[in-house]
Amino acid sequence: MKQTRRSRALRRRGRAAGVVLAGGSGTRVGAGINKAFLPLAGRSIASWGINTLGAVQGVGILVFVVRPEDLEHARFVAARETDRPLEIIPGGETRQDSELMALRHLADRIDAGTIDTVLIHDAARPLVSHGLASAVLHAAREHGGAVPGIPVTGIAPVQGADGLAPGDPRTLDALLRVQTPQGFHAATILDAYEAAARDGFVGTDTASCAEEYTAAPVTWVRGEETNFKITYAQDLLLAQDVVTALGLRTG
């Protein structure tokens, strides 16, 4: 009976959609293919984040955004490496274009209220935990927007050409190394991205677009050191070490 009430509550407020972006290349990793499709402990880097988001309670739809030339790789991931149905769409020239295309892909369901929240995640962060993704979803539903982050410490602010500002009470302790997934109320973030497209605004990530075009507060939850982005070859080696050390499930 308790589970039934919970299920009804989820249906009333809609489901969340998990969007995984894989628009990068393998250049800095030293690979000849998109790094999202490089192997990590027996399966592709992208499949780790996809499966983690898909296991989060409340996430009912998964969207995988890839470069047009990577569609075959994406179909292989969907057929062989994921636990849930995967909607594959081509992305745009930039990260923001790809996010907009994902939101437009979901627009009818957002307008109908069947999707209430969107989580947007970088495929290049394969080791995001189930707990972190769940925490971001919960915070996004509670506040309207949420990002994971790790506070930056031990750095002083710079004041113009004079260098460090002595005695300045501001420090970057209040700033964050922001990670993904970033979660937002679906209708709000869709409207924000459409407005940004009309204005030609390009943000650094999902949160920057939300802050520019919405009044919704963006809160943060504590990120994880293991939720790092694979950019260089040594990052992939480190990810393999983390998988081994933590005994994570492999392919």
TrEMBL record:
<keyword id="KW-0808">Transferase</keyword>
<protein>
    <submittedName>
        <fullName>2-C-methyl-D-erythritol 4-phosphate cytidylyltransferase</fullName>
    </submittedName>
</protein>
<dbReference type="InterPro" id="IPR034683">
    <property type="entry name" value="IspD/TarI"/>
</dbReference>
<dbReference type="InterPro" id="IPR050088">
    <property type="entry name" value="IspD/TarI_cytidylyltransf_bact"/>
</dbReference>
<keyword id="KW-0812">Transmembrane</keyword>
<keyword id="KW-1133">Transmembrane helix</keyword>
<dbReference type="GO" id="GO:0050518">
    <property type="term" value="F:2-C-methyl-D-erythritol 4-phosphate cytidylyltransferase activity"/>
</dbReference>
<feature type="transmembrane region" description="Helical">
    <location>
        <begin position="47"/>
        <end position="66"/>
    </location>
</feature>
<dbReference type="Pfam" id="PF01128">
    <property type="entry name" value="IspD"/>
</dbReference>
<dbReference type="InterPro" id="IPR029044">
    <property type="entry name" value="Nucleotide-diphossugar_trans"/>
</dbReference>
<dbReference type="InterPro" id="IPR018294">
    <property type="entry name" value="ISPD_synthase_CS"/>
</dbReference>
<dbReference type="GO" id="GO:0008299">
    <property type="term" value="P:isoprenoid biosynthetic process"/>
</dbReference>
<keyword id="KW-0548">Nucleotidyltransferase</keyword>
<keyword id="KW-0472">Membrane</keyword>
